User: Which sequence fits this backbone?
């Protein structure tokens, strides 16, 4: 492989890591905007979303250029396709962060809710899952990728708990319905972000093990 193409692959990897760092920061800022009732943070999340979108476009462009002009070997081709898929998952997580930021602004303009349900726990868990899925990619750690996949059950459980809390709060005081539904939207956005982190972990497992474990219950096949 020529030095030029080695640099091309390195640039794809570096931009993917840059995109993951921005996405993780955006998700954290969106969650804090909600928990701390901070409009400035919510505005920052929306402003930075376009930068994440642009990075996804750059990565896809580089992947297409490499595949169409270089005729990569199977290993490199798998890396390129996986890089494009991971970038897409990161962009979707950033979209969920934007949703959280917008709901945070809506809630910041009205009296605070009595309970934040499971949002603090969900926020910490999803951010950790995203961080670990990218670490699994960087360190080629398929065991860590499997750990991320297994942690999704906790996020799903916390989301169901949040939904029950919202339902109870509305029944207790129907005047809070609009605010509680905003809270439920935040919980759902975090749950979806967790799903995207799981998708990244599954892609990491594929790129380094060559085995597609999507839709198989979150683990490799037994042989």
Assistant:
């Amino acid at each position: 492989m020529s030095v030029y193409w080695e640099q091309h692959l390195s640039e794809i990897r570096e931009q993917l890591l840059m995109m993951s760092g921005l996405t993780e920061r955006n998700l954290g800022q969106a969650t804090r905007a909600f928990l701390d009732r901070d409009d400035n943070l919510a505005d920052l999340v929306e402003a930075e979303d376009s930068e994440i979108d642009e990075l996804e476009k750059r990565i896809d462009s580089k992947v297409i250029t490499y595949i169409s002009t270089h005729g990569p070997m199977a290993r490199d081709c798998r890396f390129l396709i996986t890089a494009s898929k991971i970038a897409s998952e990161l962009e979707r997580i950033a979209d969920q962060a934007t949703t959280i930021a917008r709901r945070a602004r809506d809630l910041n303009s009205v009296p605070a809710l009595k309970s934040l349900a499971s949002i603090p726990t969900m926020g910490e868990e999803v951010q950790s899952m995203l961080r670990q899925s990218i670490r699994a990619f960087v360190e080629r750690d398929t065991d860590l990728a499997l750990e991320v996949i297994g942690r999704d059950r906790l996020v799903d459980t916390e989301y169901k708990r949040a939904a029950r809390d919202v339902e109870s709060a509305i029944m207790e005081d129907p005047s809070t319905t609009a605010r509680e539904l905003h809270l439920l939207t935040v919980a759902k956005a975090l749950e979806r972000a967790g799903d995207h982190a799981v998708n990244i972990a599954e892609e990491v497992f594929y790129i380094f093990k060559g085995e597609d474990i999507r839709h198989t219950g979150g683990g490799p096949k037994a042989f």
About this structure: The helical segments are 3-35, 39-70, 74-108, 119-139, 142-172, 177-209. The longest helix spans residues 74-108. The CA atoms of residues 103 and 203 lie 30 Å apart. Residues 3-209 form a domain with the Methane Monooxygenase Hydroxylase; Chain G, domain 1 fold (CATH 1.20.58.220).
